[in-house]
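Re: weekly structure request thread

Next one in the queue (509 aa):
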Amino acid sequence: MGSNLALRTLLTSTRRFPASRGPPRAVLRLASRPLSVSARCMAPYYAWEPEGPSLKTEIPGPKSKEAIAKLDKVFDTRSLNMVTDYQKSSGNYIADPDGNVLLDVYAQIASIPIGYNNPALLKAARGEDIINGIINRPALGNFPPHDWADVLESGILRVAPKGLNQVFTAMAGSDANETAYKAAFMWRRQQERGGPNVEFTEEELASSMNNSLPGASNLSILSFRTGFHGRLFGSLSTTRSKPIHKLDIPAFDWPQATFPALKYPLEEHAEENAAAEKAALDEVEHLILNYHIPPAAVIVEPIQSEGGDNHASPAFFRGLRALTKKHGVLLIVDEVQTGVGATGKFWAHEHWDLPEPPDMVTFSKKAQTAGYYFGNPELRPNKPYRQFNTWMGDPARALLFRAIINEIERLDLVRNTARVGDYLFGRLEKLAARYPGEFENLRGRGMGTFIAFDNPRRDEFLRRAKKFGINIGGSGQSAVRLRPMLIFQEHHADILIEALEKVVTTWDK
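Done, posted below.
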């Protein structure tokens, strides 16, 4: 009863102030209290968000067009989705300078975990520890804060994947993957030398300065076709999603295997899909054994996101883990987009029921910080400065992730995502049945709100969705991908479904 009363108080009080000013302190205190399950299910988690989308102009409207023209003089705007007024965005809703408010199921490319202007994060950001981290930003490898271990253990490491109890912090997803690659190369060469205590030869030291053997190793990272792992030099060599990412950039001669292309509905194509996954695993093993530049590691996304939201079964990933163990190759799981609750598990690879954990798991996006987890102490380089840069992450962002974790746990948001995802998938199934060809290859059942479908007029589909108050994204050639925040609930799903139906029933209007 107390929780419900508190929630009703929150609902009524928070309607009375403009989003641009944010919630008052009394609401911040109230919003930090745990809510009962019944209270969580009866109303939005953050009640000052709008009740639904509202459109006042076309998108972009006159104020947005003016802002775009001004920005274009000093900044490349060709990839612009929409100009945003972040002060007026709240919860699941994104606003623009013209007063348009859209339900955001793209969430800054899957990077906003618990809503715009979240009160818990506002409160955390005002804390002395985050302020200190911002204005006295440390070079973490040389001058870590005295409480850095406590910050890591109470935040990033508190949600570490099972079996992985150490972390290397980084700046972004690409950075996390590249440092994981470096760890894999150093580990492999260490094994070949005979252990961490074997010193480098003079020849290795000298040749490394000339980018030649034996100091510059002849090793590779095996990735998958249509995968995406970042846009820096090393990570870009493992990115295979779109040519536009890679054109004109020098790249390493590294191997790529076929990611299984599953057919949907899964239950109608079980035999074909199993054969596709076996063929993919056979190709991985062949490349591990025969590629002219031996792989030190295999990197894989639990769901290929930028490449078109491509899924594989838990059995495929268990087979991949078995192959890498069999041949002494590391397995890196790229959870940059899938991690932090989006799939109904905190980490997507928890769906696989692996007999032993991956060697490294990279993360970023919803964590608001970045890095990779690992467990094997031999993955820590044998000498200082081998895995190093000035910042090595950002304490303020690590503290923000801790606040995000606290809020995810307080509101049981991973379970919420699993429940709402099932509801949303069921509604999309019915929509797909009513409009054949518009919601093809619906995928993501049982994977929280990490759901996608194909549309033959995808780019126009995304543009039209804005006209009905929905900000949504695409991936690959024809996929429409849903990336709601963890606070997305059933009533948001209903708004989304109603808008998507309007998109496909008004093509010619």
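Confidence is low (pLDDT under 50) at residues 1-21, 24-33, 35-42. The longest strand covers residues 295-300.
Next request, please.
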